[in-house]
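Teaching assistant's notes for section 4

Start the section by putting this record on the projector. Ask students to predict, before seeing the second block, whether Phosphoribosylformylglycinamidine cyclo-ligase will look compact or extended. Collect guesses on the board.
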Amino acid sequence: MSSETTGASYASAGVDIEAGDRAVELMKEWVKKTRRPEVLGGIGGFAGLFDASALKRYERPLLASATDGVGTKVDIARRLGVYDTIGHDLVAMVMDDIVVCGAEPLFMTDYICVGKVHPERVAAIVKGIAEGCVLAGCALVGGETAEHPGLLGPDDFDVAGAGTGVVEADRLLGPDRIRSGDVVIAMASSGLHSNGYSLVRHVLLERAGLTLEGEVAELGRTLGEELLEPTKIYSLDCLALTRTTEVHAFSHITGGGLAANLARVIPDGLYATVDRSTWTPGPVFDLVGRSGDVARLELEKTLNMGVGMMAVVPAESAEAALTTLADRGVEAWVAGTIAERGEQESAAGLVGDYAV
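Reveal the predicted structure now:
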């Protein structure tokens, strides 16, 4: 028998190049939908190209970049065989971090790692990413699909992404703009978003023994549908706020919960108080807490508790901000205030209202 039939090959090692090529062909139509005028070329090159001359309209353009994944939420998608929503989560995790400083999302790249390339599955993941990019106003200029047999099981996968945005230097948002007397506006989350799923999976699937396919009366749908609810993408809503009213800062509520993320934009000498009574977290948060006997503080430092983004604005801008968000279909409310920090507040923690 000749060496041509007995010799090792990439395919015999578990990597299917033809399947990868097929996946690329299937995803092209979705990537095309994200195209912006500044994008040059198409999918298939070694690098995505973005015409930076478009930034000439800026006096001093600052580029903002971020990278992230969606954590163990991918396990829920894998178990249910639903792959076209996880991309929304990825875009939200990346681009909503970028918009926090007031930057306009420009473009994004993705990285999809699989144990075995199933072309339709990879294309479905990219479809979700592309749809998310449209919602964020950015282009998907490239990506990588890597097949890692032996390292990942045939049905295992993970996703990650990186994005770039731009903001005029004198419009950069953040702690330096916040003043005593400002108010904190909360924007409702669409559910758990993409953080805390290691706790959620442990509590609901392992300890409580719930099934993803089972109906949960208080949720009004199956547990799987609730857990796969895509993360809300706030990028264009936040940019609309910066155009219609004065905004001092945003805070994207992700890992670490509301208090830890809001604290990241509060300057020394000031503190924020957020009144819990201004909203009621959705039923999934109570379900997690009750099913696992999870302490309230543990929930609050792990999950978003119904708030996905916060804006800090001058008190006189609050009404206009709420109107803008309402016009865009975003549920929002005044949830707190900013004040000068004294000796009493310097030791404030999560007792009663949030104080950060």
